[in-house]
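Let us work through a complete example step by step.
Step 1: write down the sequence.
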Amino acid sequence: MQITIAEIMSKKIETIEEFASVQEVAIKMKDKNISSLIVVDSFGKSKGVVTERDLVRKICVKDVYTSKVIIKEIMSLPLVTINPNEPLSTAIDMMLQHNIRHLLVVDDKTEINKPIGLVTPRDLSRYTEFTRDDTTKDNLEKILEYYI
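Step 2: predict the structure and record it as tokens.
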């Protein structure tokens, strides 16, 4: 039996509007104890993702004034999405192909592809013992070695 994305995804996702300041993002991440936020437009459509890594690489090291920069300027693009019914191996392949650590799970039955979950290397690591396919195991190990 193949494990699907719906079985491994984190269902608790947090969003922030694209015109929020970097400072607002950092505060929300701290308050919610999370490392990423899905960036949405005023209609709730997913536009990108912003991570702690984005904050460090695009703001902190450049000594940028955090209340003057909006997330739309630094969010990671393109936003890579996956359907909840896809197998685990597809998520692993997509993460490697796009060199990403956050894969947004969307309900593609709605017009705006509503975000319903998120897959990260941590989610994948919980299911390593269920992976029987050698290629999938190898790819999963690559993600875990590089990203965790």
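Step 3: interpret the result. Strands lie at 15-17, 36-40, 46-51, 81-82, 103-107, 114-119.
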